[in-house]
Design a protein that fits this description.
Number of strands: 7
Strand content: 5-15%
Order of helices and strands: EHEEHEHEHEHHEHHHH
Structural class: alpha/beta
Radius of gyration: 19 Å
Helix content: 40-55%
Number of helices: 10
Distance between the termini: 25 Å
Shape: globular
């Protein structure tokens, strides 16, 4: 199965979703970052079956592998916002290449510019290129608790009525500091949840105050990630459901 994360906006959560939602539940997946400069998931390569960086101009090389192996192996393709214009241009150039992509995932954060850019990308993918709307998933990210999702993303919902893509609705991602803390430590929620270390005990026994603080923070993060991982698993199951069996994200 080939899963492509893309959008024309930066800092929307593509790389986080690649490792925390897809990678955490597809540990043997081959990870391709379509990227040349920005920091992405290169420090998390151990959490994927394999990891490679590739520029968008090597579109044919990437898609040849996806065509040959995408039906029998799992792939996660994380397209950088810096590379997405060329990637989409190549999708237009090679008619039908999108048929090798089983899921196209577009994260979006609640700013008007990002929402407008996302609507433009949805129109491009579905109306111009011909990607089936049933294969397109919009994940709302960095929301405040209690946010009125349909009001905040009203333009996306208007477009959904006419195009028919999927939206994460009540499975949307909150603005969690824990993602930032995990990223700073090169960890994933699954890795921390599965850790056998007793960080509470280590924090009390450690004589170095800096290390003691680190252990204390890891202990607190452990208490948080169990619920976070369950929520992420629900999002994964929602995306992986076949289009004809898609369940209500609420």
């Amino acid at each position: 199965m080939v899963n492509v994360l893309l959008n024309s906006i930066g800092s929307s959560g593509k790389s986080m979703i690649a490792r925390e939602i897809l990678g955490a539940n597809m540990p043997k997946a081959h990870m391709f970052e379509v990227e040349t400069s920005n920091t992405g998931n290169q420090y998390y390569s151990e959490y994927f079956g394999s990891y490679r960086r590739i520029p968008a101009y090597k579109f044919l090389e990437l898609n040849k592998e996806l065509l040959l192996r995408g039906e029998v192996e799992d792939y996660i393709i994380d397209v950088s916002d810096k590379e997405v214009s060329e990637f989409v241009r190549e999708m237009r150039r090679y008619t039908g290449v999108h048929e090798s992509y089983h899921k196209l995932i577009l994260p979006v954060v609640p700013t008007m510019k990002d929402i407008l850019d996302t609507c433009k990308m949805l129109n491009t993918l579905i109306c111009d290129i011909g990607v089936p709307a049933s294969n397109v998933y919009v994940i709302f990210n960095r929301l405040e608790d209690g946010c009125d999702i349909e009001k905040k993303f009203a333009l996306v919902y208007v477009l959904k009525e006419s195009l028919g893509f999927h939206t994460s609705d009540n499975l949307s991602l909150l603005n969690k500091d824990v993602f930032f803390e995990l990223e700073q430590k090169g960890l994933t929620s699954k890795a921390l949840m599965e850790s056998k270390e007793d960080y509470a005990r280590l924090s009390l026994e450690e004589t170095d105050p800096v290390k003691a603080n680190e252990y204390a923070l890891l202990h607190l993060l452990c208490a948080n990630v169990k619920g976070l991982y369950k929520k992420n698993k629900r999002i994964f199951d929602w995306v992986m459901a076949s289009p004809e069996k898609i369940f209500d994200a609420s």
